[in-house]
Amino acid sequence: MNNGQPREVSERVGECVRIYRRKLTWQATYQVNGEQVRQSLNTKNKKVAIQRAWDIDRKLTAGESLSRKKPATLSEVIDAYQEHLIAEQRAEATVSKYQRILKEIMTLAAILERHRISEIDLTFADKFKARRAKTLAPKSLSDEMMLLRQVTKFAFTRRMVNKDPLLGLKLKKPKPTPQPCFDDEQIAQILALARPPHAATFLLLAETGFRIGEANWLTWLDVDFKANVLHVQPKDGWKPKSGDVRIVPISPRLAQLLHELPRQGRWVLTSPKTRKYPANDRQIAKSTTHAALKRVLSKLGIAGKPHTFRHAFISRCLTKGIEEAVVRSWVGHVDAEIMRLYTHISSKVSQDRIKLLGKPNTEVENATQSNAATPA
């Protein structure tokens, strides 16, 4: 569509060049080594544009070199891209993840002897996908292919390559994989079996829907007992995923826990003292939480991970009748598709609901209103 504007028609200048106007500036188009080149003539004056186009045509017909800038090496592009990530203040975990993937791209490029970014083309993408598909789940493979695409786009927009070598690459977003979800009884079993300080971490996750990083980076300055809320906000060395700065209300059970926890410095959740680490205020690590939960779940025969508490919180809120908009404001960025994935209906809830079919309508209304009024 041209939005009602007259369509610009190109005009031939000499044997090899055509000129046309893009907005108000004149452009030239011609071919070099079989590649279509579009070049701004940097003028709004048609007479000047024709003169400059004649200069280009004379060089082409005389066989003079009009070769374009040599594409950057893949190594140069990746170094520049990593500097860009740091400049954009991407999360440290994200940068580390990308570095691992970029290393895999470099490894295959070295095997195939493709050293320039222009050689990271569609055939390379196919080979990379086939190689990584042997060890990766669909979601992880999709993430790696998306990063490969971002690298070539970055090179093109930074003029490190004459044309985007992966132009036309089609990436399919994988369907979300069903995830486990803890029900209320399972959470109670986990909390009963967990030892300090991990029991406090698990309860915090279950009562807030926090991501594990948000729990581990929670400070006492983030806890507002007067307003009865927790603040999820950036700190030196960390920021929430997708910039999810938000306020989360404190449930009665969580309030009791927070009042009982010792304040041993900055962090709400701290690791116990050891001979190697005698300090009281040592931030608890993700790996420690993962390992502790894995031990508990193994004993109980339950599938899950720390993020499963987030599934459980969202699912419990929605099945209790809390509006989706409210749940979103508590848990941060969750798109509609992922929100549906997070909504797990426990077998107990399912059995309770099926019993409503045999009751009079008034009893059904009373039961559903009671469920909606029950605090999450």
Can you put this structure into words, describing what you see?
This protein is an alpha+beta fold and 376 residues long. It is built from 15 helices and 7 strands. Strand 2 (17-22) and strand 3 form a beta hairpin.
Q: How does CATH name the architecture of the largest domain?
A: Orthogonal Bundle
Structural class: alpha+beta
* Major sheet size, sense and barrel closure: 4 strands, antiparallel
What's the arrangement of strands in the largest beta sheet? 1-2-3-4
Tell me the quaternary state.
single chain
What percentage of residues falls in helices of 4 or more residues? 40-55%
Strand coverage percent: 5-15%
The overall pLDDT average reads 86
- CATH level-3 fold name of the largest domain: hpI Integrase, Chain A
CATH class bucket of the largest domain: Mainly Alpha
| CA-based shape | elongated
Low-confidence stretches: 1-7
Please provide a brief summary of the model.
This protein has 376 residues and is α+β, with helices and mostly antiparallel strands.
Q: What are the defining features of this structure?
A:
15 helices, alpha+beta, four-stranded antiparallel sheet, hpI Integrase, Chain A, three-stranded antiparallel sheet, 7 strands
Question: What's the arrangement of secondary structure elements?
Answer:
Elements: E1 11-13, E2 17-22, E3 25-32, E4 35-40, H1 46-61, H2 74-87, H3 92-111, H4 122-132, H5 138-157, H6 184-193, H7 198-208, H8 212-216, E5 223-224, E6 229-232, E7 246-249, H9 252-260, H10 286-300, H11 306-319, H12 324-331, H13 336-342, H14 347-355, H15 361-373
Antiparallel strand pairs: 1-2, 2-3, 3-4, 5-6, 6-7
